[in-house]
Design goal:
This protein is an alpha+beta fold. It is 21% helix and 28% strand. An eight-stranded parallel sheet has the order 12-11-10-5-2-1-14-13. Strands 26, 28, 29, 32, 33 and 34 form a six-stranded mixed sheet that branches.
Amino acid sequence: MSPVRLQWKKLFDRGLCLLALLTAGAAVPALHAQDFRKQVIYQIITDRFFDGDPTNNNPPQSPGMYDPTKTNWQAYWGGDFAGIQDKLPYLKRLGITAIWISPAVDNINLPMTGPDGKPVPYLFAPYHGYINRDFMRVEEHFGSSLNDWKAFDSMTTASHADGIRIVLDFSPNDSNLVYTAEHGNLYDNGKLLATYDHDPQGMFHHNGMLTDINDAYELQYYDVYGLADLNQDNPTIDRYIKDSIHQFQDHGVDAVRLDAVRHITWGWSYSFANSVYTHKPSFMFGEWFMSGSHDKFYPDARKFANQSGMSLLDYPFALAIRDVFANGKGFSEIQQTLEREDRDFDHPLDLVTFVDNHDIPRLLSAKGTRHGLDEATALVLTARGIPVVYYGDEQYLHNDTDGGRDPYTRVWMSSYDTNSLGFRLVQQLAALRQSNDALAYGSMQMLHVEPDVFVFERHFANDVVLVAINKNETVSATVPALETSLPPGSYSDFLGGLMDGGRLRSRRFANGKSQSGPLVLAPHSVSVWQSARPANTAEVGSLGPTIGQPGMQITIAGQRFGSSPGSVLVGTVAAPVRSWSNDTVTFTIPSIPPGTYPVELHTAQGPATNQERLTVIGNQLIPITFTVNDIPLLPGASVYLTGNTVGTGQWQTDPNTASGPFLCPHAPSCFLDISVPAGKALEFKIFQIARDGSVHPEAGARHTWTVPDGGTGSVIVDWQR
């Protein structure tokens, strides 16, 4: 068949598939987007995955940015939404339950050039999707030259029919480069909205290029990589960005990965998350790059995750994994990282874990081996958190040019071998995540840690998974008898020896625990032993989102809820139940005062044995800029605000709960963006925390101000002496 006829046949078949899905709604499974703990995410660089529609490779509005030879690593290579849809059978067979796609908004139409007018070798075409021009349209290289939603809708509908959720990478920090191509200009569905070079309405920040990554003000308010930094405090930009993400939700997006969250105004991001959750049930996680738990902004990232309602990509865990499997470090680094994060984060099971991604060299380019990549992948798929598999890792794809750094971490997906060891490893462990809830909802206990050996247990209700890894390439390891939650008996390796795992025998020990015999772990091996038994009573595994206002939909997931509807109590108040199944319940937050409440699930057989906690805010969040003038700043002190709302600390002066620290680029004036409930009669006070931890409040009465019902706002007060 000729290439043209073949392409028309593929398009025709895809159209028939979409028509069948749309006309057979009963066949499409219900996807509970808020429960992501059971998911296995597959991250795709859309342009690099599969070319399903060659007609969009060189669209008329943005010609000349496509390279059919795939030798220009900064050009489009042809991957698109149709290609992802074509490969859904591969992804479903792999066991993937969520696809994380590149940013899909319309990117610039002109090649990027330098001051001399020549193409910039390292930045030519926005194949990755991060050089925005129009947030209200879909990129033509991924869909069609009409910038319409047809291909996107076809992909999401087909994915949902296969039980696969869609995670959208969304990048609302900036538009495009100020010095080349379209010079930062921003469009709204084809109509010019804002011009960086002439900006009387203040839709951009004009602070120049970020130079100091250790300065919180520069991180949030300067141009990153020369991209025009959007002013989210401007009501037009605020509404525009939120309308854009709502539009994507309406077109089938189930979850949002918020790009470069440490560069977006932190306080505004709380309102963005709240807007997403209010519009439709969703899951959210942000990319807050950090060098580990010792990073200067680790406390800010932890506070953000605990208070914003969105989780984060788990960079500290990922970097520890890479140290262990590529740099020869011992497993104690992973142990220490997990222990600290489990103490610091309120919801560590919602942290999104990974080995590789598009911004760092693949493990195989960073001195890692295939054995090491398999072991690291097995760890991510079984440890606490929501795992991500970076596309091609299951096929061991990598390019070591320039050490595998960007753009060489973004290889062409050249293999779809369903018999590779990497494919079979992901396939089996993804299946285990669906059949054994210990991986999704269970606690994680580290039982034995040596430089080359890591043994840990996941446990939820009557479900148990025990994992043992020996990363030494040549030497077996013997682990002494362990106390585990596995029932007494003999267990074969769940992976069937795929990673040279062995058997385990256990006998009754005491207090409901068993004791294993000594474990002999082969070199570069992974052993997985598991037991899944029905729970004795209802068990709650997750609740999401964890922050919201009355009327917002919340999802509870777990085991043995029964088919007969029961009740949900938020504190002591019954919540309206929207749906009920044996493993998932949705309810609406009742009209109750703001605060943090236990959520109790009561089934027909009685209450669940465990609870989750929900923070209730008074109303939908509005981003407000608070400015305080004439502050008598103490040397080395930080400025905070506390007030009469949950988000402002409810009069506490603990830096982990109060709002702050303020930014002081023009001291003695300082400012801070804070998201507060719409219409709230706000009361607040300003205080400083000195280097020694002592608290120094301003004098005078409380400040008062009424929050507007929508848009954005600002408050200016003087420090009271």
